[in-house]
Amino acid sequence: MDSQLFKNSSSGKLIKTDNGFWAFVPNPLPPKLKWDASLSHLLSQAAQSLGLLMGLGETLPNPHLLIYPFIRKEAVLSSRIEGTRSTLSELFLCESTQIEKQKDVREVQNYVIALEYGISRLKETSLDMKFILELHKILMQNVRGEDKKPGEFRECQNWIGPPGCSKYDATFVPPPVPEMKKVLNQLEQFLLSINSISPLVKIALMHSQFETIHPFHDGNGRIGRLLIILYLHKQNLLPKPLLYLSAFFEKYSNEYRNLLLKVCQQGAWRPWIEFFLRGIINQSKDAITRARRLVRLQENYRKKVHEKGLSPSAGRVLDLIFMRPVINIKSGVKVLELTFPAVSKAMKQLEKVGILKETTGAQRDKVYEAQDILKILED
Fold first, then answer.
1. Which residues contact 244 (CB under 8 A, 6 or more apart)?
2. How many angstroms separate the CA atoms of 89 and 110, rounded?
3. ∠ at Cα 343 (337, 347), nearest 5°?
4. pTM, entire model
5. Which of 26, 32, 121, 223 could form a disulfide with 12 if both were Cys (CB 3.0 to 4.6 A apart)?
């Protein structure tokens, strides 16, 4: 690690270990921030955008039609930042049919499970380190990195840099284990504290600090992004998890990583906070737009089902495909508790009117896609 790049940082200090490499130890949060009209206005815009998304979630007749796919969109994009190549369609396919075409799907599924578990668990617990360990254990189960002690903080040094680099020439070296334990305790106190800092700024600071500490051997990025959604949920700023902020981080992944690094190198908190707030604004607006498109499409489809005189079962399958736009007959039977012939007939009817498309060409175990829905989600 180039110590010269960190020598003037106000966000922490370099220490030289007994083994002769440099490591960075962050200062406790919060840092001193210079506020002006521009930053205050950006924060106000972010809070307003998130409020509009929250309002939409409260007014939708069935918000679960959006929560289910939006959580999975967040999972796919957060995992993609870490190098997985699974798509949203592949995740839906695996969940509905148990057909796993891409091994990375399992990592994305674990992210979904961890997020849903976290939302449920926060009803009775705090967002503390014990809770974070529970999330990590779920995230890393039966996937790459499960040999790296899921659900446990690291007990040896890690580092970040190009493939093949060592801790001596790495781009960044997080705090050694003794210092890591100390700064994790400080981060927990900050998360649980009651102060005048805006929750949106607080979670931006937390995410940066967590990634700096890098307390796990693997999964640090995904856990750090999970905590954003869960903290907003705990603060009642996002009662329904309709925000997929990882889409913004994935789209601007180089800027995302560079800004986190510059916080450590230069104490450049403001550019990172501005980037984070822009992400909240952008993705809140994006989620609202997609939600409205999906609601309009559902209304049009219902009208078509009514006009064509399709079976009542077709109407129930229609609602289901907005949560599961890749589906087979068996999963429809299981979820809707209808008979196999009823679901089979309904899917054929929906295929005939252009709502579903059969994708296998097989006589048995047919798989159907709602391609208009997938297009809205994946565009």
1. 70, 73, 74, 77, 283, 287
2. 16
3. 145
4. 0.92
5. 26
